[in-house]
Design brief:
This protein has three helices and ten strands. The strands form two sheets. A seven-stranded mixed beta sheet has the order 1-7-5-6-4-2-3, with helices on one face. Helix 1 runs parallel beside helix 2. It is globular.
Length: 153
């Protein structure tokens, strides 16, 4: 089992089978330029080569919500999403896998989406997280307390 943060909704790992990565690249026709550049910068920092040994392919899946994704690594790496946000989240997860496992990642299937919808207010106090809708009155009350707040837009 991987150590992905935050923990995905679904993860199935087969540690007995591994994908060996000599070099890695993205199917660039389906990825925004800054996302691509960020990913390549990251793999270079890990001293992985950019090349066509393993190409991350992207497949549009209308059954998934905008920020939801499915990532499958077996003989190849495939990202399923319905929009750009899902691709970004999937690539963030792939970066964590590469950081953890290096050139030999286990065969893995992951499905995930953000815990809270965009444009929500989330209050956190210790280990407690409470999603709330936007409210200026509520925000004012939060500023007067010791609660830490985070606005996700």
């Amino acid at each position: 089992m991987s150590h992905i943060i935050p923990t995905p909704l679904f993860e199935k790992t087969d540690e007995t089978k591994r994908l060996f990565i000599k070099s890695l690249s993205l199917d660039e026709r389906n990825v925004n330029g800054s996302v691509k550049d960020d990913f390549y910068d990251f793999i270079r920092k890990l001293e992985l080569s950019v090349g066509n040994d393993v190409v991350v392919s992207f497949t549009h899946d209308f059954s998934l919500e905008n920020e939801e994704y499915r990532l499958e690594a077996n003989e190849k790496i495939t990202v399923y999403s319905s929009g750009e946000a899902g691709k970004v989240f999937a690539l963030q997860t792939l970066k964590q896998l590469l950081f953890e496992y290096g050139r030999t990642i286990p065969f893995i299937a992951i499905k995930d989406k953000p815990k809270y919808k965009s444009e929500a207010l989330c209050l956190m106090s210790g280990d407690i997280s409470i999603p709330l809708t936007r409210s200026s009155c509520l925000l004012e009350k939060c500023l007067c307390t010791s609660l830490i707040f985070c606005i996700c837009i």
